[in-house]
């Protein structure tokens, strides 16, 4: 009897010591070590790849897309795009129960529509017509054949932060006109914020919309 109690107490004590040691190692030391390495070697990524404006205010993350819309008017369900800014990809995958503004995101996902789905086909047609209409200004008309796929389709998450250089170029004349800037100056801004393929061969060239609009805002403010 005494031996049984003694063995049980010994096993409980060993288990408790193992629990405390593992809690210390995996719950305290390991997270501290990983956090320290992340902050020391990759502080930007460890803190969420934050983008900071000229005034020092964090405006978002370079990893998450953001909408640039006008405030909703009375009776409106869908906000209109604020055309003084470069626009990102459509966010149809976010559904109707989301607020893709200031990163207050409720959900994200793909549209889950087949390529021949009638609703998706209509989305693409409507998006292309809007791109042509919104970006055609005096002296510059967008050719529908030049509208790239990323201008009319959403990404798998609906939160793609990047657009293709082609889509950015289509928007240059409109952004320049809306902000009272020379086209050449806005075009140069796009070139400065165009990233090439990773490691020279992975992925496609891309433009981060938030970074581009942050630089645009600084450019307009500095005139």
Task: Considering the chains and any ligands shown, give keywords for the structure.
single chain; 223 residues; mainly alpha; 3-stranded antiparallel beta sheet; two-stranded antiparallel ribbon; 6 helices; elongated
Distance between the termini: 89 Å
Structural class given helices, strands, pairing? mainly alpha
Number of strands: 5
Give helix and strand order, one letter per element, not per position: HHEEHEHHEEH
| Global geometry | elongated
Low-confidence region ranges: none
Oligomer: single chain
The percent range for strand residues is 5-15%
Q: What does this entry look like structurally?
A:
It is a single chain. Helix content is 45%, strand content 6%. With 223 residues, the protein is mainly alpha-helical. The chain has 2 domains: 2-44; 50-221, no CATH class. A hairpin with a 5-residue loop joins strand 1 (50-52) and strand 2. The radius of gyration is 25 Å and the shape is elongated.
How would you briefly describe this protein structure?
With 223 residues, this protein is mainly alpha-helical.
Q: How is this fold's topology laid out?
A:
Elements: H1 2-41, H2 43-46, E1 50-52, E2 58-61, H3 118-135, E3 162-163, H4 165-179, H5 183-192, E4 194-195, E5 206-208, H6 209-221
Antiparallel strand pairs: 1-2, 3-5, 4-5
